[in-house]
Design goal:
homodimer, 325 residues, alpha/beta, Rossmann fold, six-stranded mixed beta sheet, four-stranded parallel beta sheet, 10 strands, globular
């Protein structure tokens, strides 16, 4: 850990600005939606930054594109690699495809076929491992050794954090006078990028992270003052199961106002209500902020709050309010 | 029929302009979305006018608002009434609520509780009838006699058609150089409004109507040259079961380029694919245009096409790709 932190450079706001210039041709400046209904329900004024409309369906296209398009030609030729069965694997495949370089994604052989198909749909190559950390690490090490690919971590990577920081930079231009910005927290990449940008352009804006009660390691880390990592937490918000790492902990520790949690039922209810009333498809993870605003009405009433809808990649055959098998 | 047509005035483009001024405070100028994915798939350039984001969840808020806000005070005091278990009932309740006048909606007692709750949520009053045309007509006549309310027909009403015409007026301002505009057709209110506007502002633009094969009365009417009405057709696109009436037939007969149809499976596939790729919630009816574009690739490739996504009110507990009970 201590060795890693000396290697990993904490990104600066200049890195966010450079990232934005670099990735603009490959990402959407996503729209901000409002809802009279949700404003009435919460007593707050909510501004939803819709990264579910982002390329590859999630904000992760920002960080992945920044990493991919920042590589020099020699390294780019060898490609990029990551281990992720979620949006980062998709996004890295998307970005590599746009640059025309190889992307390898190590994924458990037990991952859903739909996720594998999506990665391949964006041109990524899948190498399967067993569903264990030791197998994943061994297989991933082989991939790196064989291909010489550049490892792009889903969140503990300064290029990725600087890329995610472009989201609240856009939001800051789109909505004036926000009192607070809220995003879900898993590994902390989006929250870190948000902290990085807002602490520079709007240091008075509060930053809230929202987390499932069932995977509240960031909440407990925040209260304890050091990283606490859980082993395989179970939550419907499957993008939020991963722990903080040193870079993201740096931003959480120094810039986050508070971390709030919501139960599984509260998350599913907020997700379904958003689909019904706002007519947008979003992931369970994206519903966690609204769920926490709804249960902390007094804290947020009267405030102007930016809410980051992080992604929209869901299995439409298996929606969480329909019961699971 | 012949008596009715002498009473019903065919609306003009000036009526559309007046409607737009009248309803602007109560409706959204809905966004136009594009999709690299669907452009690739169809070979066309598609511009989706998203009325699923409209007030009350569908374009019907336009026509209903125009009717409600066009009433003089004496009539307004007595309220408005309609028979509809779908979006028009919702929209009329919404518009009446905004003006602060009563709305009565006659609905079969067998209509889903969710639809009744939605009407009541917008402040509408429901009067139940038996699920038959004779009962509906008898109950509705009683309502009109008792309340003196103004009847606002879901589509065969010049005020409603002029209101729906504001949608393509916005689209015309939002997207330049459209070769064609396509909308689903049921009773024909949206298509008529589209014809009314485009025949005035862009007469060279082609106008396509899209219809379920299972409820293809407008298609057969168009080919036969007179109105053919079906008895209770069955289709997943439940907003499109109603027949053309004299006013809407006027526009279809004179201004529609062609009517294309799609099967139930094609509609459901297009709907699911839109949710997956565009991350928007839309009704089965709204997927019919895309379904017909996908199956008529050669006809539309290379063209710039406005596609009207008519609404987003769906039962999330009962999605058509999940099987029905």
């Amino acid at each position: 850990m201590s060795e890693a932190i000396t290697e990993l450079k904490i990104p600066t706001y200049d890195d966010v600005l450079a990232a934005h210039e670099r990735i603009k041709p490959y990402i959407h400046n996503t729209p901000v939606l409002t809802s009279t209904y949700f404003n009435g329900l919460t007593g707050a004024e909510l501004f939803f930054k819709c990264e579910n409309f982002q390329k590859a369906g999630a904000f992760k296209a920002r960080g992945a594109s920044n990493a991919v398009f920042g590589l020099d030609d020699a390294q780019a030729e060898k490609g990029v690699a990551t281990h992720s069965s979620g949006n980062h694997g998709l996004s890295l495949s998307y970005a590599a495809g746009r640059r025309g370089i190889p992307a390898t994604v190590v994924m458990p052989r037990t991952a859903p076929d739909a996720k594998k198909a999506a990665v391949r749909g964006y041109g990524g190559r899948i190498v399967e491992c067993e569903p264990s950390t030791s197998s994943r690490e061994a297989v991933f090490a082989e991939v790196l050794a064989e291909t010489g690919s550049e490892f792009v971590h889903p969140y503990n990577d300064p290029r990725v954090i600087a890329g995610q920081g472009t989201c609240s930079r856009e939001l800051f231009d789109q909505v004036e006078g926000l009192d607070a910005v809220m995003a879900p927290i898993g590994g902390g990449g989006m929250i870190s990028g948000t902290c990085l940008t807002l602490s520079n352009v709007a240091p008075e804006t509060e930053i809230y992270a929202a987390e499932p009660e069932n995977a509240d390691d960031a909440y407990r880390s925040f209260k304890a003052g050091h990283i606490i990592a859980d082993d395989a937490p179970q939550t419907v918000a499957d993008g939020l199961k991963v722990p903080l790492k040193e870079l993201t902990w740096h931003f959480v520790e120094n810039h986050v106002t508070d971390i709030l949690t919501a139960s599984e039922q509260e998350i599913v209810d907020a997700m379904k209500l958003t689909w019904e009333r706002m007519k947008i498809v979003m992931e369970p993870s994206s519903a966690v902020p609204l769920a926490t605003i709804l249960k902390n009405r007094d804290r947020f009433a009267g405030k102007r709050i930016g809410v980051i809808i992080t992604g929209g990649n869901v299995d439409l055959n298996k929606l969480p309010w329909m019961g699971n098998d």
